[in-house]
Amino acid sequence: MFEEGQLYSPVTRQADGQVEVHLGENHPGFKDEHYRARRNEIAAVATDWDPREPVPHIDYTDEENRIWATVCTELAPKHEHYAHSEYLAAKQALGLPTDHVPQLEQVTASIKPLTGWTYITAPGLVELREFYSSLGDKVFHSTQYLRHPSEPLYTPEPDIIHEVIGHANQLASPRFSTLTAAAGRAAQRLQTEDALKFLADVFWFSLEFGVIHEDGLLKAYGAGILSSYGEMDEFRQMEIRPLDIGQMGTLNYDITSYQPILFAADSLDQLDDVVGVFFETCDDETPDRVRRELHLTS
Length: 298
Ligand SMILES: [Fe+2]
Known about the structure:
InterPro entries: ArAA_hydroxylase, ArAA_hydroxylase_sf, Aro-AA_hydroxylase_C_sf, Aromatic-AA_hydroxylase_C. It comes from Microlunatus elymi. Keywords: Iron, Metal-binding, Monooxygenase, Oxidoreductase. Belongs to the biopterin-dependent aromatic amino acid hydroxylase family. The protein has 298 residues and is of the alpha/beta class. It has a single domain, classed as Aromatic amino acid hydroxylase (Phenylalanine Hydroxylase), CATH 1.10.800.10. It has 13 helices and eight strands. A four-stranded mixed β-sheet has the order 6-5-8-7. Helix 7 packs parallel to helix 12 (268-281). The chain binds fe (ii) ion (FE2). The site of fe (ii) ion (FE2) has 7 residues, from helix 6 and helix 9.
């Protein structure tokens, strides 16, 4: 669903040191004590991680590896059909395993020679400024848990399948890597929360849920679409608008339901010319300037 990539279950540490992941009542694993204990265990590893140490290794269970394999098998034909060729080429170049969950260290070892990215662990939500600023240094905060086994093709929150199949395959493309790093450098430059939110919204409608015309067909390049079985069936039914930074940065959207409006680039070059140039040039005044141009403020 479109909430994927945004909604993280809160992670807290109790007074006794116990790390707890607070799943919502509608989460498929809400009533599964075994799953909840596993989520707590993986979140604790990330919470306790010292960034001076190697990224933690998770000993994935057979069931978790099966979820990964099932999703890889199911997504592969959809990618061939719906993903932009730039993503497909990058996915092939990265060559991640399809039969078991890769360690983040392995993701880094594969992607770094291609485009320079490092994957590090995150227990859940990473604060907006920290997450985006890290992108400017080609560091990607990734969760390590998997979705609930009862619904291998659905997750209400971004698990390692979203972070790696969606984002790492995308970031293995030099072009999407450059765009993403430019967004990160913008976050390092911007001071106001308003400008940062505007940037995050443009990112949402491009690198998370962006679509693009290719050879007369609408293809997806956004990680949120390409990591989601359901999304790939739906995106061509949405209202498709041309790239427009003003609209992308100001449109109100509901992350818990289908996003009815998507923005399509005519080509990768146009994506660079519009979104890339915005990332390279935006400043703290940009949101107000855009709103004035759109007559959203007096
Ligand atoms: Fe994402």
